[in-house]
Write a structure and sequence with these properties.
Blueprint (H helix, E strand, L loop, with lengths): L2 E5 L17 E5 L6 E5 L9 H11 L4 E3 L5 H9 L3 E3 L6 H9 L20 H6 L6 E3 L6 E3 L19 E2 L1
Parallel strand pairs: 1-4, 4-5
Antiparallel strand pairs: 1-2, 2-3, 6-7, 6-8
Helix pairs in contact: 1-2
Length: 168
């Protein structure tokens, strides 16, 4: 059995990246032996569908459980269709999360994210706005800022590298 986690680095002591589809690295870990493989995320800078592509990649790696801070609704559907258990709300170091999983303390699988529960909403409507709150994240340097109500993240410039921000 393999676990899949989005990582901010290539080692077990790095932090879990809160962005599944746009994480810096994917970690595929055998929880029994703690052997792992870290791969740079080739979908990180995709214009669209990064989460879907990341989910398919996890399925191709024979991952049985994905542990992440958050997984978008479209990626969630791909993972579920592939028979992969999704556990969200995971934070901290990858090693700690795997140890907690091994101890049997992370057993509550995620439910389908809100945006995909309404079958009548079209993709266009879902992309129109994500509502108040949340964060704007830089796809280049991962800097995040609080989302300003009424200002699309794509209109915000990263305070660090001046790239256009994306909504998290």
């Amino acid at each position: 059995m393999k676990l899949g986690l989005p990582g901010s680095g290539k080692e077990m002591n790095t932090l879990i990246d809160p962005r599944f589809g746009r994480c810096r690295y994917f970690m595929v870990i055998d929880p029994d032996t703690l052997s792992f493989e870290a791969r740079e995320n080739p979908f990180r800078t995709a214009d669209r569908g990064a989460g879907i592509q990341a989910a398919q990649w996890m399925a191709d790696q024979c991952v049985k459980t994905v542990m992440a801070g958050r997984v978008g609704p479209n990626a969630f559907k791909v993972l579920k269709r592939a028979g992969i258990t999704v556990i969200t709300g995971i934070q901290g170091e990858i090693r700690e999360a795997v140890e907690t999983y091994r101890a049997g303390e992370l057993v509550n699988p995620a439910t389908i994210p809100e945006a995909s529960e309404n079958p009548s909403s079209s993709e266009k409507e879902a992309r129109r706005g994500l509502g108040p709150g949340g964060k704007c994240v830089c796809p280049k340097c991962a800097t995040s800022i609080e989302h300003k109500r009424g200002v699309p993240c794509r209109e915000e410039a990263c305070p660090e590298c001046k790239a256009r921000m994306r909504r998290e």
